[in-house]
Amino acid sequence: MSFTIMGTGSGKPSLCKTNEDLVKIMDTNDEWIKTRTGISERYVCGEESVTDLACAAAEDAMNDAGISVKDLDLILCATISGDYITPSMACLVQERIGATCPSFDINAACSGFLYALDVAAGYYERKRVKNVLVIGAEQMSKLADWTERSTSIIFADGAGAVVLGEGEDFLSSQIASKGNHKVLYAENVKGNCPFTQQAPDNFNNYLSMDGQEVFKFASVSMARDLKRVMKEANLMGKDIAYVLPHQANRRIIDFAISKIPEIPSERFLVNIDKRGNTSAASIPILLDEYNKLGTFKDGDILLMSAFGAGLTTAACAIRWREK
Amino acid sequence: MTTFDKVVELLVDAKDCEKDSIKLESTWADLSLDSLDTVELVMNLEDEFGIQLEMNESLKTVGDVVRAIDEGLEQK
Fold first, then answer.
1. Global pTM?
2. Which of A99, A179, A188, B58 is the S-S candidate for A94 at Cβ 3.0 to 4.6 Å?
3. Is the ipTM of this complex over 0.85?
């Protein structure tokens, strides 16, 4: 047994910042950002915390699924930018919404939400759960270095969630890791232990990214992973209703599209222009946006694909069910 | 078809470059290509020729890429 998606939800930060807003604080321009990333505007946290966003997404998804907190058997949260190093964001959400089930986080960077779905599938296979809340929530704006443009123009904040129930609609899933910390990383705090070798004077824990290397890895892996999950589930291009790619960079999505001619480009859903790159939150945010628009029909096959620091990649095929 | 012809064909097809403006000494800036365009170009060339190319600062011009491909083909 695998699972079915019973409901979706999202939590949106209060502040919308356009490229023009960024031009006022750093050396960049609207055209430069748009042509390199496809981003026009993004949301970032103001007074609210990322836990607030995660809880809003959770409540929204439970409403959409028509279940209550007491029905939850597991909470999985994919994040790399929670409010606390410990406890986990999943436990913060559990505490706030009043759930009592086991709760833990998964760190697979931008691939985290799809890794979490893969983990959830294992709990269903072992028949240990009926309803699972899976959240992707990020406050990437605090990991980006706002004194320069390489990451701050791309990354953004947000949360998305799904409630899973018993079903047979998780058709195939692939997760992969290729350890390489140099191209995309953010270091942890160094502390003040007097016995430990001190961090260098120029230490910071901002996100560092080799854009060209990540671009190359991402474009290749997205096309490869989508083909793999299609093959595993015995799907042809014509069977695919929509593809929900991780919203990292419009150019990566366009390159992947050019490498999978069997899936028409209009079936790739995109919202990076309005949301930026929200890391592990990007796919559940995109899913919720199009679910609430009524885009998905009963039986639609959805493909999802993500990649991120690690390096990690993941993809899956899910059959959509009308509630 | 020479390696140069093949690179020109890809630049024209994928990046809408003017065929006559592409010379061996053309830099990416001359052809109005940004850093991601060059990554895409290199990836497409790797597929086309079945070789691996190292992305680095030494690939500054069309001629640099042509040389790197020819070296890659020799080692195949």
1. 0.92
2. A99
3. no
